[in-house]
Amino acid sequence: MHSFAELCRRYGLKITPQRTALYRIVHKAKSHPSAKDVYEEIIREYPNISIDTVNRTLNTFAEYGFIDVVEGYGEPKRFDPDMDAHHHLHCIVCGKIIDLPHDKDCEITIPESLMKDFSVISKRIVINGICGDCQVSRK
Question: pLDDT per residue over 88-122, tens digit each?
């Protein structure tokens, strides 16, 4: 949480108990939670917080690079505390998103013709499939 306070100071954000709790919830989650998921957990500690406040705060965190936004795949966007380069496996049945470590086998090469007019900031591969839990339940 020390780095959270440093990040807030760097960007001029107030360090409030609610922001601190939201950051903690997202960082302990391994499931790439949506704003609704985070809201359902934080209301136990802060029952008067609104879903709008949760959503705006998570979007602010993403804007400043505290967390990342994960593709919503037609569902609400999800949030990822892991800012290291990695890819995702997405289960098309249950919606689970699993981190896939970044390695050279998953590298994307951008054609030179596109690089003339486009500056790449980051690259992420999303592999769609069916997770082990859903494969077992389908048998």
Answer: 999 999 989 999 887 776 677 888 888 888 888 87
Q: Domain check: are 66 and 99 in the same one?
A: no
Tell whether 16 is covered by a domain.
yes
Residue ending a domain, among 70, 103, 128, is: 70
Q: Are 99 and 88 in contact (CB under 8 A)?
A: yes
Range of the domain at 61: 2-70
Closest CA to 135 of 91, 90, 89, 81: 91
pLDDT at 138: 81
3-state SS class at 127? strand
User: pLDDT tens, 14-67?
Assistant: 999 999 999 999 999 988 999 999 999 999 999 999 999 999 999 999 999 999
Pair 55, 97 in one domain: no
Sign of the Cα torsion 25, 26, 28, 33 reads positive
Q: In sequence order, what are the beta bridge partners of 68? A: 80
